[in-house]
Design a protein that fits this description.
Blueprint: H1 3-23, H2 29-90, H3 100-117, E1 121-128, H4 131-138, H5 140-157, E2 163-168, E3 171-177, H6 181-196, E4 211-217, H7 226-242, E5 247-250, E6 253-259, E7 262-263
Parallel strand pairs: 4-5
Antiparallel strand pairs: 1-3, 1-4, 2-3, 5-6, 6-7
Helix pairs in contact: 1-2, 4-5, 5-6
Length: about 260
């Protein structure tokens, strides 16, 4: 109902009450004049009250609209801040990949999902070889730069459905839902070759960046928890380190190695 409709209804109600009064009185013209004056007065009074009410309502409406606009802006700002905070909690600040807590959470989630569907699930654990030597010889800032570049290489060379996380220090996870052994080997081949292209040193003092990896592909008849998946990949990584580094083990079985950037 708009303002004019409200005024009309209220006016009609008062006119009807005056007409009812006139019908009970005589037909004296003075009576009609007085009644008419009273009608005009009461109508004007009523219109004034309606206008006052509508003005007050309009002011309250404007205040409500202003408050709503302020509230919406604050909610948008809060949503943006929450989004940034969530990203910071879920991502490693240096490398930009998932944080330790988020990647482990993802491993557990994907393990449960793969177990229900009977799908394969591959987990790669990758570690930078001789990272201490890099830090000691080139400095910790250069070591941080290498980790940052490795994070970029990992993100750029995995599938869209894969997840990359930093487990700690110079260790990384690649979680690969539905991946076959050939897909794992193909992705690791790209990753390891691109990591080997990272430039370290100023030319006069160069260093070849290499990584060792262990991986496993989930067989739900043998794996009963996501922790077992992590342990198998970790054992593969340990064997790769013990066997000479710059190589890949499928669980505890040798898979392939590199020499001067060529797969052996």
């Amino acid at each position: 109902m708009n303002a004019n409709q409200m005024k009309t209804i209220l006016a009609n109600e008062h006119i009807e009450s005056i007409c009812l009064e006139l019908s009970t009185q005589g037909n004296d013209k003075d009576d009609y004049k007085e009644a008419y004056k009273d009608l005009v007065y009461r109508y004007q009074w009523m219109i004034g009250k309606v206008n006052d009410f509508l003005n007050h309502l309009h002011i309250e409406r404007e205040e409500a609209d202003q408050f709503q606009n302020v509230l919406e802006k604050e909610l948008e700002q809060l949503a943006d801040e929450n989004k940034k905070l969530k990203y910071q909690c879920n991502h490693d600040k240096l490398t930009g990949v998932f944080s330790r807590s988020r990647i482990i959470e993802a491993i557990e989630e994907e393990f449960i999902l793969a177990s229900k569907k009977g799908d394969s699930l591959a987990l790669v654990m990758l570690d930078l070889d001789d990272f201490k030597i890099i830090n000691d010889q080139f400095g910790h800032l250069e070591g941080d730069r290498i980790l940052e570049e490795i994070g970029c290489v990992l993100k750029e060379n995995v599938r869209q459905s894969d997840m990359v996380g930093r487990y700690g220090g110079d260790e990384f996870f690649i979680l690969m839902p539905g991946a076959s052994k050939n897909e794992v080997k193909s992705i690791l081949d790209r990753v390891i070759k691109n990591i080997g292209r990272i430039q370290l040193g100023d030319g006069a003092q160069s260093y070849q960046v290499t990584v060792s990896s262990g991986y496993c592909i989930c067989d739900h008849r043998e794996y009963h928890s996501f922790q077992e998946l992590i342990q198998k990949a970790d054992r593969g990584l340990l064997k790769a380190k013990q066997d000479g580094k710059n190589r890949v083990f499928n669980e505890e079985v040798y898979d392939f190695a590199y020499e001067e950037g060529v797969m052996l």
